Amino acid sequence: MDRKPLSKASREDGLIVGRNPVLEALKAEKPIDAVYICGEGGSLGLIAKLARDCGAVVKQVSQQKLDAMSGGASHQGVIASGACAEYSSVEKILESAREKNEPPFVIVCDGIEDPHNLGAIIRTAECAGAHGLIIPKRRSASLNGTVFKTSAGAASWLPVARVANIASAIEELKKAGLWIFGTDASGRDYTEADFRVPTALVIGSEGFGIGRLVSEKCDFLLRLPLKGKITSLNASVAAGIFMYEVLRQRGNPVG
Predict the structure, then answer these.
(1) Is 4 exposed, middle or buried (CB count within 10 Å of its CB: 0-12, 13-18, 19+)?
(2) What 8-state DSSP symbol labels residue 6?
(3) Scanning 87, 100, 182, 204, which has the fewest C-beta atoms within 10 Å of its C-beta?
(4) Alpha carbon distance 184, 93 (integer Å)
(5) What angle do the packed helices 19-27 and 42-53 form, to 10 degrees?
(6) What percent of the chain has a predicted confidence (pLDDT) above 90?
(7) Residue whose C-alpha is closest to residue 69's, from 42, 39, 35, 41
(8) Secondary structure of the chain: what % helix, strand, coil (to 5)?
């Protein structure tokens, strides 16, 4: 399959300001991550409904918040944050692996809220040959301008699926035959894992790691050795080490 870049949002900063522009963007099914609203009823109520229907997060915020976001432009009580690349789906990510005749290699980010970390993870995942990445709709950075820039353009090439529930997405991956490897300090040494099988690698949030429910759905928990006084690595650095172990092992096919 030819790799074509995913389309960018129309505005470089990813913000759509004002009631009519936001409403038209939603009607045209433009990729929208979040809608920030001050007030309710009337056209704002319609905007909120359309936003939820398309899967965007709707946030009630203060007038001061919108003023700061708009940089002085007339926002009329609403600003939408557009994605810098279109989202994919879990099925399309798995289809990509099938088309390449490769065992699936999927990265699952459980609550990576720092856009710089998410961008760095996307960049490494694309370089390491991952077929796609999964993020939750809430408690996560989205495909905004900072993520796109930090990924050095990799967000245009690597399919990213945004799901309502990470635990449910993991169940979908399991049904497709993937083994789920979670990253946790209580796990086994990462070099003991066999990543030549269909693999989903779960990376936890910067401060709290992977959630309890997500951890319980993992087939294996793996850790990185730490020799210094600091007890954890930056999420994107740790993710890079795991991903390149997958790449290293897949140079030796199963059997």
Answers:
(1) exposed
(2) P
(3) 100
(4) 25
(5) 30
(6) 53
(7) 35
(8) 35, 20, 40
Residue 182 contacts residue 210 (beta carbons within 8 Å): yes
Rounded distance between C-alpha atoms, residue 33 and residue 19, angstroms: 16
Q: Which residues of 141-157 are buried (b: 16+ CB within 10 A; e: fewer)?
A: bbbbbbbbebbeebbbe
Question: Taking the complete model, does pTM exceed 0.70, yes or no?
Answer: yes
> pLDDT tens digits for 177-198?
999 999 988 899 999 999 999 9
Main-chain dihedrals φ then ψ at residue 168, nearest 5 degrees: -65, -40
Q: Average pLDDT over the chain, rounded to whole? A: 87
Any bridge partners for residue 204, and if so which?
A: 110
CB of 185 closer than 8 Å to CB of 231: yes
Per the rule left: phi > 0, alpha: psi between -120 and 50, beta: everything else, 195 is alpha
**Any idea what DSSP says for residue 208?**
T
pLDDT at 14: 67
Strand 32-37 versus strand 78-82 pairing type: antiparallel
> Domains along the chain?
15-82 (3.30.1330.30), 90-249 (3.40.1280.10)
Beta carbons of 209 and 90 less than 8 angstroms apart: no
Q: How far is Cα of residue 67 from the mean position of the Cα atoms in its chain? A: 28
Q: What type of residue is 90?
A: V
- In the chain, what's the furthest Cα-to-Cα distance? 63
Q: What is the DSSP letter of 103?
A: -
Q: Which residue has the tokens 């918040």?
A: 65
Helix (H, G, I), strand (E, B) or coil at 161: strand
Euclidean distance between CA atoms 94 and 80, whole angstroms: 30
